[in-house]
Amino acid sequence: AFVSITRGCDNMCTFCVVPYTRGRERSRDPESIIQECQNLFNDGYREITLLGQNVDSYLWYGGGAKKDFKKASNETKENSLTFSDLLDKVAQVNPKLRIRFSTSNPQDMGGDVIDTMAKHNNICNYIHLPVQSGSSRILELMNRGYNREKYFKLIDNIKHRIPDCAISMDMIIGFCTETEQDHKETLSLMDYVKYDFGYMFKYSVRPNTPASRLEDNVPEDVKQRRLSEIIKKQQAHSLLHMQEKLGKTYKVLIEGVSKKSKQHFYGRTTYNSAVVFEKGNYKLGDYVMVKIDDCTSATLKGTII
User: Fold this and answer.
1) Does residue 58 sit in helix, strand or coil?
2) 45 CB-contact burial (10 Å; exposed 0-12 / middle 13-18 / buried 19+)
3) What mean pLDDT comes out for the span 228-257?
4) Are 186 and 223 in contact, with CB atoms under 8 Å apart?
5) Dihedral (C-alpha) 8, 12, 18, 20: value to the nearest 10 degrees?
6) 63, 158, 215, 283: most buried by Cβ count inside 10 Å?
7) Are 237 and 130 in contact (CB under 8 A)?
8) Residue scoring higher pLDDT (187 or 68)
9) What's the whole-number mean pLDDT along residues 37-66?
10) What distance lies between CA 224 and its chain's CA centroid?
11) C-alpha to C-alpha distance for 169 and 196, rounded to whole angstroms
């Protein structure tokens, strides 16, 4: 199940329409979130994803806007709840309830969230951390709020605290004025992080965004060539991560029947890796231990043990 914890966004990335279509950021009452998660567990759900345009900026202190929080009393601030506080509370709903969250903005993700993830076994070792570009110059044009070096520091912090944490990304290729050097910096960033998987797109103008006033001057054939290079590199990194899992055994939550075979289930590991395996005497919502026998760059294949 998916549980919304925030609405809207305050980040104002130049390519994005969300702040204009969904409004300013608002956080939900934590008690209503925790109760919803408890009800879902009681109804048979075994995994929930906490959703927000930027979950790490979740802040609750009675429903006021974030701009008003700066003027709040010290007592109010001491009694406020951040995303790491909420994550900790949701993790305590039931140890059999597995938890994911999306999406994290690199400029807002703090060490407290990483520490909370490390503290609870039922919080998945997986972070979707959109980077959008490996070039600090392009990131500034995008108004992302961080540069290449700050992103590297965050990645290092995650891997130090949770060494086996899987990380995925979003990447926009061919943003306004992107040069071949900018593109090479994106490729080198990918080599540094080695994402488990990613979502990669050619830039296209969204009307009425700040970026629509910039010149979309990267030719279409150049965008396509750069996108192909990004995808090829990501597929190689994805395959590498999958191959590292061969022969190992993972706890998998059964999510459904395989699209290719009615005799097989599919599920996901804590790392968000998709796994396909024979059904056996199990049902949807069961946790099973699966030994990995084979893989592609996108899917693991295994046997219930």
Assistant:
1) coil
2) middle
3) 97
4) no
5) 90
6) 158
7) no
8) 187
9) 90
10) 25
11) 9
Antiparallel, parallel or unpaired: β 47-51 and 59-60:
unpaired
Phi/psi of residue 256, nearest 5 degrees: 180, -175
* Residue carrying the six token digits 């009615």: 262
The model's pLDDT over 102-131, given as tens digits with 9 standing for 90+, comes to: 999 999 999 999 999 999 999 999 999 999
Q: Span 248-265, mean pLDDT? A: 96
What the block records as the tokens of 34 is 């925790």
DSSP three-state, residue 262: coil
Q: Is the pLDDT of residue 82 over 60?
A: yes
Residue 253 has pLDDT above 80, yes or no: yes
pLDDT in tens, 282-296: 999 999 999 999 999
Task: Report whether pLDDT(65) > 60.
Answer: no
Query: Residues 273-287, buried b or exposed e (16+ Cβ, 10 A)?
Result: bbbbbebeeeeeeee
What would you report as the CA-atom Rg of the chain, rounded to the nearest whole angstrom?
20
Alpha carbon distance, N-terminus to C-terminus of the chain: 27
Which residues have C-beta within 8 Å of that of residue 181, sequence separation ≥ 6? 135
How do 26-27 and 6-7 pair as beta strands?
antiparallel
Give the model's pLDDT for residue 209: 94
Would you say 279 and 264 are in contact if contact means Cβ atoms under 8 Å apart? yes
Phi and psi dihedrals of 304, rounded to 5? -65, 130
Mean pLDDT score, 152-161: 97
Task: Retrieve residue 251's tokens.
Answer: 């706890």
E strands, 107-196, are 126-128, 166-173
Q: Round to whole Å and give the CA distance between 69 and 52.
A: 20
